[in-house]
C-alpha cells in the first residue's frame, strides 16, 4: 500500500515510517523538515493544517497514519487554543482529504481516560484532565463520527508512555521521563516529584510502530475502533531510576521536589490489541527501553 505518515519527521513518525517500509509499504512522509525523514520516505513538506498540502500528500494514497500533534501536557495548559487547533483541526484536515476507501490510523493517548488503580482498557471512563487530552479525545470522536457516516475506516490507538529508540533515533524531548533521566546521567539532575512511587506503563516505540502497521489491516471502510497500546506492566519512577543506573553503569543525580497533583498509577490493559491485532509488546521491558534509548543518544 501507499501510506502517508503525518508527523513523519518526529520520534514516533520515524519508527512508524521504518516499520511500514519493512512491511513492504510505499511511504510518503508529511513533515515540516524533510531532512528528518527516514531514508526512502518520499517527502511532502508542510503543515497538517494546510488543506492543500494534506490533499496533495494523500492523492493516490491507500492509507494514512496520522501522528502529527502537539503532546506536552503542561504546555497545553498555557496554550489551549494552539493545542486544539493542531490536534483537532489537523485531524479534521486529514479526514477531509481521506476518501472512503482510505484506511486511517490515529495515534492518540491514554490520557483521554480517567486515572484508575486497575489496568485501563478501551471501555474505561473518558475523563481528559488537560487541554492536550481533551483535544485528542475530540479528534478521536470526530474520527468516529466521520467513519460511521460512511467515511474512511478509522482505528484509534490510545497509547501509554512511549520511549526507547528505533530507526536510529531516540526521543530528545526532556519533558518525558526516560529522556530526562538519560540527560541527568549525561550531566545534570533529575527531579523526582514526591517519593518516586508514581507508576507508569512504558511501551517501546518500535512496539508501537508494529501496532500502527497491524492496525492498518483492520481499518475497514465505515468503521471506527479503539485499541489500548501499552505494555501492561507498571514501573515506578524509583524503579526506573534504578534501571537507568544499572543499564548505563552511571549514577543518576536526583533532586526531590514536592509531590504534584498527578495520577499515582497509569497502566494499560492491552488485551484487545493482543487478541484482535495480534500485537505483542515484545521490546517493552524497561531494561530494553532504556538500553535502546541510551545507545541512540547523540554522543558528546
Automatic annotation (TrEMBL):
Q: Which pathway does this chain act in?
A: Carbohydrate metabolism; galactose metabolism
Q: Domain NAD-dependent epimerase/dehydratase: where?
A: 3-218
Annotated Pfam families: Epimerase
The record ties this protein, via PANTHER family, to: UDP-ARABINOSE 4-EPIMERASE 1, UDP-GLUCOSE 4-EPIMERASE
**What family classification does the UniProt entry report for this protein?**
Belongs to the NAD(P)-dependent epimerase/dehydratase family.
Its protein name is UDP-glucose 4-epimerase
Q: What is the species listed in this Swiss-Prot or TrEMBL entry?
A: Actinomycetospora endophytica
Amino acid at each position: 500500500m501507499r501510506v502517508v505518515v503525518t508527523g513523519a519527521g518526529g520520534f514516533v513518525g520515524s519508527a512508524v515510517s521504518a516499520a511500514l517500509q519493512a512491511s513492504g509499504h510505499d511511504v510518503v512522509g508529511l513533515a515540516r523538515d524533510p531532512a528528518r525523514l527516514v531514508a526512502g520516505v518520499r517527502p511532502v513538506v508542510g503543515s497538517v493544517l494546510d488543506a492543500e498540502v494534506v490533499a496533495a500528500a494523500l492523492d493516490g494514497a491507500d492509507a494514512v497514519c496520522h501522528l502529527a500533534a502537539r503532546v506536552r501536557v503542561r504546555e497545553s495548559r498555557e496554550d489551549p487554543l494552539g493545542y486544539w487547533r493542531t490536534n483537532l483541526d489537523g485531524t479534521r484536515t486529514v479526514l477531509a482529504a481521506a476518501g472512503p476507501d482510505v484506511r486511517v490510523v490515529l495515534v492518540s493517548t491514554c490520557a483521554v481516560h480517567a486515572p484508575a488503580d486497575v489496568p485501563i482498557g478501551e471501555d474505561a471512563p473518558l475523563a481528559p484532565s488537560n487541554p492536550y487530552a481533551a483535544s485528542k479525545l475530540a479528534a478521536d470522536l470526530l474520527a468516529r463520527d466521520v467513519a460511521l457516516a460512511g467515511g474512511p475506516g478509522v482505528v484509534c490507538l490510545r497509547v501509554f508512555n512511549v520511549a526507547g529508540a528505533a530507526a536510529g533515533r531516540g526521543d530528545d524531548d526532556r519533558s518525558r521521563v526516560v529522556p530526562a533521566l538519560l540527560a541527568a546521567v549525561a550531566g545534570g539532575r533529575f527531579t523526582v516529584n514526591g517519593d518516586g512511587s508514581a507508576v507508569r506503563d512504558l511501551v517501546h516505540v518500535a512496539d508501537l510502530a508494529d501496532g500502527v502497521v497491524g492496525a492498518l489491516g483492520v481499518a475497514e471502510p465505515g468503521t471506527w475502533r479503539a485499541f489500548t497500546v501499552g505494555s501492561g506492566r507498571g514501573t515506578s519512577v524509583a524503579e526506573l531510576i534504578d534501571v537507568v543506573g544499572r543499564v548505563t553503569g552511571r549514577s543518576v543525580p536526583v533532586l526531590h521536589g514536592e509531590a504534584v497533583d498527578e495520577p499515582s498509577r497509569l497502566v494499560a490493559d492491552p488485551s484487545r490489541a493482543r487478541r484482535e491485532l495480534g500485537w505483542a509488546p515484545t521490546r517493552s521491558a524497561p531494561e530494553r527501553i532504556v538500553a535502546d534509548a541510551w545507545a541512540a543518544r547523540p554522543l558528546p
